[in-house]
Amino acid sequence: MVGRIYVGAALILAPFGVYAQWLDERLGLAAHSFTVETFIQAAILMVTTGMGLYFALKRMIPQHRQWMFRSYASALTFLEIRVVIGLTGWDRDPAMTELVVWCFTATAVLVGDIANQLYELHAMRPRTARMPVLQAVPAE
């Protein structure tokens, strides 16, 4: 159920974010480059989530997991950008804010792929065989 809510939110709310950003630009509250970035960020989120949904419906679970890692990484950029800008004080400098936003957007899928690779490496790690515990047989 949580997955369905996530997919619905990603596919429905991302275009609304672009629309809200476009309205901000029209009112003179944001630069055009931020509207372009918001469109790209929404497109990345919608494509990765859509691919994850497609593979889930086809019951191709490994591919679904990989695309959802990418989707989560792109969704987290919304939070990461605000945390980094807020903690560093770069929110006072519009050029630095724009740089941070573009960097996080550009690296979102890369971060998801790194998470996929770490997951695969962990899954392939050789496991040590456990020795069975020998039970002492009481002497007669």
Count the E strands: 0
| Spatial shape | elongated
Q: Mean pLDDT, nearest integer?
A: 87
Strand content: under 5%
- The helix-and-strand class reads mainly alpha
Run of helices and strands: HHHH
pLDDT below 50 for ≥5 consecutive residues: which ranges? none
Question: Major beta sheet, specifics?
Answer: none
Helix fraction bin: over 70%
| Span of the ends, CA to CA | 59 Å
| Rg from alpha-carbon coordinates | 22 Å
SS field, number of helical segments:
4
Please outline what is shown here.
By secondary structure, this protein is mostly helical.
Question: Could you describe the 3D structure shown?
Answer:
The N and C termini lie far apart (59 Å). The longest helix has 31 residues, at 94-124. The model has no long low-confidence stretch (mean pLDDT 87). The chain is elongated, with a radius of gyration of 22 Å. Helix 1 (2-26) runs antiparallel to helix 2, helix 2 (32-57) runs parallel beside helix 4 (94-124) and helix 3 (61-88) packs antiparallel against helix 4 (94-124). It contains 4 helices and no strands. It has 140 residues and is mostly helical.
